[in-house]
Specification:
Helix content is about 30%, strand content about 25%. It is built from 19 helices and 28 strands. The strands form seven sheets. It has a seven-stranded mixed beta sheet with strand order 15-16-17-14-13-18-19, with helices on both faces. Strands 23, 24, 25, 26, 27 and 28 form a six-stranded antiparallel beta sheet that branches. A five-stranded parallel beta sheet has the order 10-9-8-11-12, sandwiched between helices.
Length: about 675
Amino acid sequence: MTIAIESFAEGRWIRPGGEGAAIASAIDGRVVATLPGGTPDVAAMVAHARRTGGPALRALTFHDRADILRALAAHLNERKETLYALSAETGATRRDCGFDVDGGIGTLFAYASRGRRELPSERFVVEGPPETLAKGGGFVGQHVLVPLHGVAVHINAFNFPVWGPLEKFAPAFLAGMPVITKPATPTAYVTEALVRLIEQSGLLPPGALQMIAGPTGPLLDELGGQDLVAFTGSLETSERLRAHPSIGRHAVRFTAERDSLNAAILGPDAEPGTPEFDAFVREVVREMTTKAGQKCTAIRRAMVPAAFADAAAAAISAALAAVPVGDPRREDVRMGPLVGLPQRDDVRARLARLREEADLVFGDPDRVEARGADDRTGAFLSPILLRCDRPREATAVHALEAFGPVATLMAYGDMGEAVELVRRGEGSLVASLYTNDDAAAEEAVLGLAPFHGRLLVVDRDCAREQTGHGSPLPNLVHGGPGRAGGGEELGGLRAVFHHMQRTALQGSPRRMAALTRSWIKGAPSPRPEHHPFRLDFDALRIGDTIETAARTITLADIEHFAAFTGDTFYAHMDEAAAAANPFFPGRVAHGYLILSFAAGLFVDPAPGPVLANYGLDSLRFLKPVSPGDSIRVRLTAKAKNAARQPDYGEVRWDAEVFNQEDETVARYDLLTMNARA
């Protein structure tokens, strides 16, 4: 049955304009889906996102959105076989679906986890410490991040119809920004199935996600300064989108992740037989054959020392010869077809240009044995390995990408030349280096880091556990400079904050504490009737403070602590040696003795709402404490953060330790878990 793809607009599925372009199966060329003939009312879609989706999302906290992402990931994970089956028609093997389908769902899980662990149970983020703007401390500044009040338009490439939309959606949703997603034509039916599964879950607020199938029409004309565009695809399309008048006029945030001529370097020490040589060969072959080489992160240029070029060519060719090509639904097939015949024709045309500078080492661009399929009706192509022994004199191999199972082996003389050759790609998403030599690794990393969004350094210590040259991870930046587009996707919370506005607030400490719900020095610090540790999470107020009595630290205390802990560092035990140290006036108390005595001063020992002390942050020892000095503590409830479990929450306390001269000797944040009523 042919799938009649629909758009999801304003909360309903529609097919404007009737029958549109046909989409063929990559396996045998039969029509598997058709696009709509027209474009939805994009102005109404944008308005729906702004008026319905945006307010609904911004009414939720980061933790609320994170919980929805987690539930959505679980919902999709239970139904992913539907996406696997459809993906086969695009040429994806089951292993390929592990990168696309499972990778996309995994990204949802990853951002759900980060949202819970690293973001507050609030609708804004306090960024960094407050800035004192006046000598008296009565005027301060504070940076905050708040969601943009627009729509995030996501324009995706054909090669990852599940991961592509989800890796953009996850950080946008977590930030509180509604999304309009646009899949690429050749695989739009897979993305439509994904969006249907999401819509059927009932988990998203209305207007949080819409999809345009087919042409976008005047969509970009509707965008303004609160909107965002994230694009994945070709350099040419990126340039056209970036030059759109609305993008420039309204300073619409635009991020592009474009195909690039990514490289792998075999280090000068990685001779045949070493673990690094073997890892290099495996990775080149994997990147050539996964998704039939249709990955924006795939290895296009493989740099090898001239002395190892023959061995590398032979090893890669032998490994490629063992890769069965054919119907991706078969268990004995490791590489399926390209996404369609037009894509195969494009790769063949680019191959012809590359072969003007490089020799064919492995494969036949015109024929391949396809298991269970016909290579004439399906978009099958043999893996193709080229070799260029004079890459410094070549141009096309450093500028032209054949977006398929194609890589070019290039010989180099020394690491400096290898770095120069890689940089001729004019900016890439990723490069990988295979070496066990520290000097070679340092030279390559310092030479290549400015030109890449990610560098993978593989040696025998990490070869088995490393996640691969072509595997973007949610917690690391995905993007790159120059030809790669200059954008950053993923990268943990970086991607979330890209959808938010950074604003500098200025005012009194009292006002800043009230607005940010985070106590700062100079803000009110009321003394509750009961010890703050006797107050449960909900009864405790930001700013609640206890000032302790003082305790004198004696030489006997210091010597007992040293004997008890085994910390007999000279500054605590040797008067002459300590006095010779420019930081100490003589023997001083251990820093951890000060912390221990401080806890003894402020802790309420009886059972109560404080369930656990689980850490210290930002600890600094600011002034030494000598025998005979006394210390006291001011403990203030600084911030509260609800936990996933309803029966307790996290409290962050500002702990400041003073000496008898009211000088601060130590300061830190204490973290406790407090029961809720």
